[in-house]
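@channel sequence for tomorrow's demo:
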Amino acid sequence: MVFIGIIPVFTFALGTWQLQRLKWKVNLIDELEEKLQLQPLFLPPKINLSVIPEFVYRKVSLKGKWDHAHTLLLAPRVREGVHGAHVVTPLVRENGSTVLVDRGFVSNDFVSTFQNEDGEVEIIGMLRTSQPRNSFTPENKPEEGKWYWTDVDAMTEYAGGKEAGVQPVFVEQIFEGHAGEAGTRLSKGIPIGRAPTIDLRNAHLSYVITWYVVGGFDRFELIFKSGMLSRD
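structure tokens (generated this afternoon):
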């Protein structure tokens, strides 16, 4: 009975902890949404890497030329039911360091023939960092040209590293066109950038409900069993 009596306390404590986590996540998403509404920043020639985490999801404006020789593909990826890959190409900035840009999605029909732009380009994107690899994602194999997850440091080395003036800075190019334009780009093998939205997962509300319901059920069971014992 002592153990059963502890369970409701434990589950309600977990529910309360998840409620605090929910408030934290909501505030974080609101903060990032506010960042996303600000005008794009122009990155300095030499980027201070230590402050990048403070500017994640912040829009930036970039100008330079693509280094197509060091393009890599992040795969597999899926966009609205279509299987393909993300095209990541270093952008060589005039009078500045080279940075990595995820230009967006192309279908499997164009992973070898997607369109490349020559000459100077100007893009709008958002700053991101490396993504943690989960247990189901294979290790990247740069020597085989296989990239499964965003490892900014490894990608930087692949693009030439410090000796080639490449900084471990990762930008996801933004696409704000309509669905028809996205369909046209898809059919022509033109990379489709990401939407300017926050994609943080927030499942804490479901956890709050789960633990409070479990705690309530355990509390009811405890009261019921206590009543049965008192009758005996």
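heads up for whoever presents: The two ends are 15 Å apart (CA to CA).
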